[in-house]
Amino acid sequence: MWLAFILGLVGFVLFVVSVNANFLGLFGEMPEFESLENPDSELASELYSADGVLLGKYFRENRTPVTYNELSPNIINALIATEDERFEDHSGIDPRALARVFVKSILLRQKNAGGGSTLSQQTAKNLFKTRSGDSQGLLSNVPVLRMIIIKTKEWIVATKLESAYTKDEILTMYLNTSDFGSNAFGVKTAAKTFFNKDTRDLSIQESATLVGLLKAPSYYSPVYNAENSTRRRNTVLAQMKNGEYISQTQFDSIAAIPLELEYQVESHNEGLATYFREAVKADLIKWTKENLQPDGTNYDLFGDGLKIYTTIDSRLQKYAEESVQEHMSELQKNFEKEIGDREPWIDEHRRPIPGFIEKAVKRTEAYRNLRSRYGDNTDSIEYKLNEKKKMKVFSYEGNIDTLMSTMDSMRYYKKFLQTGFVSMDPHSGHIKAWVGGVNHTHFKYDHVKQGKRQPGSTFKPFVYAAAIENGYGPCYTVIDQPVEINIPNQPTWRPQNADSKFTYERMTIRSAMSQSVNSITAYMMKKLSPGVVVETAKRIGITSELEAVPALALGTVDVSIMEMVGAFSTFVNKGEHITPIYIDRIEDKNGNVLHQFIPRKRPAMSEEDAYIMVYMLRGGTEEEGGTSQGLPWSIRDEGNEIGGKTGTTQNASDGWYMGITKDLVSGVWVGGDDRAIHFRSWINGQGSRTARPIWSKFMSKVYEDSSLGITKGPFPKPERPISIEIDCSKYDLETEEYQEFDYDATTTDF
């Protein structure tokens, strides 16, 4: 008897030693000591605003760790009472629990006798994936022996964890590494997902519900299996009562309460800055490929728990998104009212474009999948494209459940106008707000990151900037009359004004820019040459390819909102160009700075010329007939100086507004995804109606929020006095000095 006991004991010890050493590779790898000291689990990387608000996460497992001090006592009590009532008394292995399992579960075959795993053992299982294929050896193919090996490993690791960590740390690690279902890994994410709470605020019933999920997250899901979840919650409450964590009275009252959830699975399509978060993700993935960890491996955006701090201000972002939604919902109604039953995709003669939708659908992923499946069988492809199915479609009043085919859906979505909005601090280069479209769930294309469209008249300031730099002052006068530019081997360019009329009156170039008079802009292009304008625009901040042609003066080249905002910021920032940035720094999970992003700065124009351009842009609100006169007085009062420029392209395909204040430079674009989709009326489609209201709404909200520190006031003047007089009222506009209009329409220019 004693011999058998001794031999059994020796055999067990040898077995444990063999498992720990993975003898001959029979048992599978054990975690290294370093891994036990620094256990690793996948952590979601987090994206923060400049004001400390969590904007979103990047993850395979949505997990964000908490510290012990961030845990509610209720979740601690519920966990210990249910999973390991002697947690504080054992050293990783609970002999009484093992004895209970042996007698009740194995000998007596009782199904509800409870398990023998301690919280330390369960933590070991979570941390080191003791039951995964990677940790299995040759003997793991033997069914019963496999489980014995797994349990032995968990015992060994549990005892090592107990020697390396405090009880509080082990409990915290367990809660941080547990799967609660609904893509919620770790208690912090679970509390947010099911109750929209921080872990420190969890009530008794909420804590009991979460602990109940640990047994079987799907079966006890409070969302999909509410009855099971309620029953399991009450079981946890009963354990808490037995452990004297709650009274009988508390148990009776709480057990009678129905489940109360504030359920929301974290989604990349929900919350603030959805377009921005997706754009940043692409940049971050590139960064992880180009930067190595100390061990020579690449960083993992989806598992390393990086902390990414952006320049976005959550409050400004909120106001930008609200402004877009408020205006675009009304603009869409006006657009649909105008088009009526007609198709909105029209040519230059306002006739519907034949086969427009058919061509558009061929550019979709759905069509490519059908081509891959059916090849050249056009009948099958056509049938599938027109096959109706259940779907949710976007509307400004909320998603609509409907039956639509792929073709129906394409026709429906193509009718929506889109927008892009960017706001930037011109002095730091920090992007403060970014709205890439009207709804990220249904419209993935980011008109900030991906979009480039013709800027129309918002390009004119670069023509006038070149003029200012070449000695023309704001008070230089030109007659509003036809202009033509002749270049060898090119058609003669004769631009019309927006209303196709000329006043034949003399006006200053400040007034001309404020009223967006094409003829005078064309005249200045004639005086300067397209090459000079291209050089100026590039130097100020335009990065897109620019063709040196006369029509460039009226914004016929495609540019992005981002580069337009960066270029206009040069004027406000005293002539210094700052490349816009939107990521401030990247930290590892421990708070160590991995990369600090520094904006690139360079001198682009003189401080005086930059200030004069600000003065020119102010003409939109200060000059009679200026295109910014429609801005509400509430944002123009209290001595506030505002500069702005509208832009509208041919056929009103693109509407723009660029607005500047002393603190913010913001740009707005509005139009259809396709240039053929636009208002039939140029009046309705012009930038002052489609784009400017978004900027106006945004700035109104900004000025109403005193916490932002963004105030009304004048643009700062240069330290040195301006070398020219910019107050045109002090000039006699009839003097010879300002009567120049000396071009000959018959000569070759440039």
Short account of what is shown:
Helices cover 40% and strands 10% of the residues. By secondary structure, it is an alpha+beta fold.
Describe this structure in words.
By secondary structure, this protein is of the alpha+beta class. The chain has three domains: 229 residues, Penicillin binding protein transpeptidase fold; 70 residues, no CATH class; 227 residues, 3-Layer(aba) Sandwich (Beta-lactamase). 40% of the residues lie in helices and 10% in strands. The chain has 26 helices and 16 strands. The strands form five sheets. Strands 2-1-3-11-12 form a five-stranded mixed β-sheet, covered by helices on one side. Helix 3 packs across helix 10, helix 5 crosses helix 6 and helix 13 packs antiparallel against helix 26. It is elongated and about 110 Å long. It starts with a helix and ends in a 46-residue tail after the last helix. About 1% of the residues have low confidence.
